[in-house]
Specification:
Length: 400
């Protein structure tokens, strides 16, 4: 009986992989789940296990070949079992020129040769040369076994993290026990930090840029004394951002793939610091709210967030982050995935201004506003015009 060794599904996006090296030569006795083959995707070096106990009867894909998911790489079974026609089983196709019969059954190179090949410059895809094998820097430059690489992937470690792992194997090589010991020495990342980390990592894959403008606060501070609830600077900023977006900004849309979607209303999130991280409750239809109503909505959303409850995210296109409460004058917050912009508010500071009537220097209370935007949606000019409309709205709060 013969069982096919097929290229497994190697992640959601990987449709193919390059054969790096067979870890056992044809004719070797293998066990089910034993790692017998190394393959390289665009992102990582992985291993393929034997599907059954038996003998590695035949190797159908040689190092350097690019094989698709589901393609037959070899056969394992009882010694002496033969496939259709006594050769390569039907349905198998090799990638690239067919090797000589002897070469197809040549034993895998020894570990030392594979380590030497790994140190060579990366080969072009399909050029017949194996991609570089993952190496670690720990004492001496050591080869990582398939089991160690699997543990590294399972624990989400990066190659750069290996510099912190002390290898106890021969020549300083990192062993599976070393990896487990290193992982056990740390503490798990709290769920909220995992969520923040995942969101920020996803968002950082986009091209982001930031523009900034100053805002004189006196008109706004005078206006808020006349509004029920005395709106905070965050409330004013949410309202000004919503009105400016609704006026026709290209950032009032969400980009999904290559399609632009215009939400029915301007929903905006507000960054709220909670224990262990940040939550971003969403305020709906901000462009249609009065400052007094918006004050109540924001206060209620902040209270729920600090209790660990956040309503559904709606179709928010942006957010406001008042990092000035920490005394920070200028920063570049990162917009959440799916958001087009994030408006940042710095800490108020006194700025010297020249008074021509008094022919002397006076002081003006100012904050710096930053607008970080998704550069795929529009360019710096559009971002600058949006920020100018926001500043103009805040400078004339009676219009809000």
């Amino acid at each position: 009986m013969r069982v096919a060794i097929r290229m497994p599904q190697l992640g959601e996006a990987a449709a193919e992989a390059t054969i790096v090296a067979w870890l056992v030569p044809p004719g070797s006795t293998v066990k089910a789940e034993q790692e017998i083959l190394e393959v390289q995707t665009e992102k990582s070096l992985l291993t393929v296990a034997s599907p059954a106990d038996g003998v590695l009867l035949e190797v159908c894909a040689r190092p350097g070949s690019v094989c698709k998911v589901g393609e037959i790489l070899g056969w394992v079974g009882e010694a002496g079992a033969a496939g259709p026609g006594g050769g390569v089983p039907a349905g198998v196709h090799d990638v690239g020129p067919a090797p000589p019969a002897a070469a197809a059954r040549a034993p895998a190179p020894p570990a030392a040769d594979r380590r030497a090949a790994a140190a060579a410059p990366p080969a072009r895809r399909g050029a017949g040369l194996a991609p570089p094998t993952l190496l670690a820097e720990s004492g001496e430059r050591g080869f990582l076994s398939p089991r160690v690489r699997r543990l590294i992937a399972e624990h989400g470690l990066k190659t750069s993290d290996l510099a912190f792992i002390v290898g106890t194997g021969a020549g300083g090589r990192i062993t599976a026990a070393d990896v487990e010991r290193y992982v056990a020495s740390g503490e798990p990342l709290p769920p909220i930090r995992q969520a923040v980390a995942a969101g920020m990592t996803k968002s950082w894959t986009r091209p982001l840029a930031t523009v900034a403008m100053p805002l004189a606060l006196e008109p706004l501070l005078a206006h808020r004394r006349q509004v029920p609830g005395r709106p905070s600077l965050t409330v004013y900023a949410l309202r000004a951002l919503a009105v400016a977006l609704a006026a026709g900004s290209p950032f009032a849309r969400r980009l999904t793939g290559t399609r632009l979607h215009a939400p029915a209303s301007i929903d905006l999130a507000v960054a709220v610091e909670v224990e262990g991280g940040v939550l971003t409750p969403v305020i709906r239809r901000v462009e249609h709210q009065t400052l007094a109503a918006l004050t109540e909505m924001v206060e209620a959303a902040i209270a729920r967030a600090r209790q660990g409850t956040v309503a559904d995210a709606g179709e928010a296109v942006g957010a406001v982050s008042n990092y000035g409460v920490f005394g920070i004058a200028w920063a570049t917050p990162i917009p959440l995935p799916g958001h087009s912009v994030i408006l940042g508010i710095g800490a108020p500071h006194d700025h010297p201004v020249w008074d021509p009537q008094q022919r002397g220097w006076g002081r003006e209370r100012r904050v710096e506003l930053t607008l970080t935007f998704d550069h795929r949606l529009a360019d710096g000019g559009d971002a600058a015009r949006l920020l100018a409309r926001i500043v103009d709205g805040l400078a004339h709060p009676e219009r809000l």
